[in-house]
């Protein structure tokens, strides 16, 4: 409960965007697992609870320029992304936060044009420090690449990482619990969406209430 006090905690959603986990995803297998496992619904639950309890929400979005300028090409994953029929182009619907995840006016959206991590080389670290956050709750996709990358980067930067294991997803579905048990549990506090929500509500810095949607 001490780790999750709202005044020192932030929630980071990773690549919960329409072009990744939406119905017209560039990665339909990942999108299906995220929805069918309930992980995306639990991300939405956590974001709503964060809005209600004063926890800062950051949405990490991966996108590309139409000309590809500045994007990595130094790994098979990046080259495969260039050939996908749905592209995560800046300003397109693909880089909007996917339903049912709510977005409030006070949320911060951090967009990156390069790399694998939602933290390394982005504004996330500076924003968290300016906000006084020391604990980072990390949710979203994928358990294969971006989630472990975010956890490792958070820990290396001195944050305490909390991972609700039922609010992340990867492919195949069986890989996620293995990643959580054998890797993430070594460096992060593993919890559940319900446990994190309950802690926030018990230590809320402001009364529960709905947030108005942001743009």
From TrEMBL:
Record domain Isochorismatase-like: where: 9-195
Entry-linked Pfam families: Isochorismatase
InterPro entries documented for this protein: Isochorismatase-like_dom (IPR000868), Isochorismatase-like_hydrls (IPR050272), Isochorismatase-like_sf (IPR036380)
Keyword Ligase: no
The UniProt record lists the keyword Hydrolase: yes
Keyword field: Hydrolase
Protein name per Swiss-Prot or TrEMBL: Isochorismatase
Lineage of origin: Bacteria, Bacillati, Actinomycetota, Actinomycetes, Kitasatosporales
């Amino acid at each position: 409960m001490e780790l999750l006090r709202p005044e020192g905690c932030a929630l980071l959603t990773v690549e919960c965007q329409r072009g990744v986990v939406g119905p017209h995803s560039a990665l339909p297998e990942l999108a299906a697992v995220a929805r069918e496992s309930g992980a995306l619904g639990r991300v939405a639950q956590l974001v709503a609870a964060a809005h209600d309890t004063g926890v800062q929400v950051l949405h990490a979005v991966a996108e590309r320029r139409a000309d590809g300028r500045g994007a990595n090409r130094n790994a098979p994953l990046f080259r495969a992304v260039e050939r996908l029929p749905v592209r995560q182009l800046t300003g397109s619907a693909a880089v909007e936060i996917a339903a049912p995840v709510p977005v409030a006016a006070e949320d911060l959206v951090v967009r990156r044009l390069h790399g694998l991590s939602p933290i390394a080389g982005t504004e996330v670290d500076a924003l968290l420090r300016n906000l006084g956050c020391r604990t980072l709750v990390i949710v979203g996709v994928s358990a294969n690449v971006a989630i472990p990358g975010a956890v490792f980067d958070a820990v290396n930067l001195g944050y305490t990482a909390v991972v609700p294991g039922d609010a992340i997803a990867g492919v195949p579905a069986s890989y996620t619990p293995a990643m959580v048990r054998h890797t993430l549990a070594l460096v992060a506090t593993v919890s559940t969406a319900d446990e994190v929500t309950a802690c926030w509500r018990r230590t809320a810095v402001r009364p529960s209430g709905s947030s108005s949607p942001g743009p």
